[in-house]
Design brief:
The protein is an alpha+beta fold. It has a single domain, classed as Oxidoreductase, molybdopterin-binding domain (Sulfite Oxidase, Chain A, domain 2). It is built from three helices and nine strands, in the order αββββαββαβββ. β7 and β8 form a beta hairpin. It is globular and about 65 Å long. The relative contact order is 0.20.
């Protein structure tokens, strides 16, 4: 009975390892310091924080209704998508994805609204830079995405 259980556990571990390898190879993340903008089958890598940055100021609200003042530097989500040149291909919303695959969707109208959606420059513990999505005036704190690695432009 014990040998049978051990064999089953080993088989399950092997299947899990194989599935993990296939999954990790299919991920479409950008190298550190870059951001992948994807529209259909086209992918463009950009450095969102090259060039002039703007002040990112506003108030975010968490799930408990508590407000937090944000005062950082970054770039509007609209400008970061424009840097890729893929904004002319047409899209109705964007899916902003973090390195751990957490994602938030934001509509075309919200992206184009002044003062609404920004990517703020965040300093990581290892000295590298990452992007963080802020959606101001939004009561859904789940759309505050840390360590953004890609933006998928969707036409739905």
């Amino acid at each position: 009975m014990k040998k049978k259980s051990i064999v089953i556990v080993i088989i399950l571990l092997v299947i899990t390892c194989i599935a993990s390898v296939f999954y990790l190879r299919s991920r479409n993340d950008a190298p550190k310091g870059n951001l992948a903008i994807i529209n259909g089958d086209k992918t463009v890598l950009i450095d969102p924080f090259s060039g002039s940055l703007v002040s990112v100021k506003g108030i975010t609200i968490n799930a408990k209704g508590q407000e937090k003042d944000v005062d950082e530097i970054g770039i509007s989500l609209k400008d970061s998508i424009s840097k890729s040149g893929l904004d002319k291909a047409g899209f109705t919303k964007a899916r902003v994805v973090s390195s751990d695959e957490f994602a938030a969707e934001i509509s075309f109208d919200e992206i184009n609204e002044d003062g609404k959606a920004y990517l703020a420059k965040q300093q990581e513990d290892d000295g590298s830079t990452s992007a963080r999505l802020y959606v101001f005036g939004d009561s859904d704190s789940k759309r505050q995405v840390k360590n953004v690695v890609r933006i998928e432009l969707l036409n739905e």
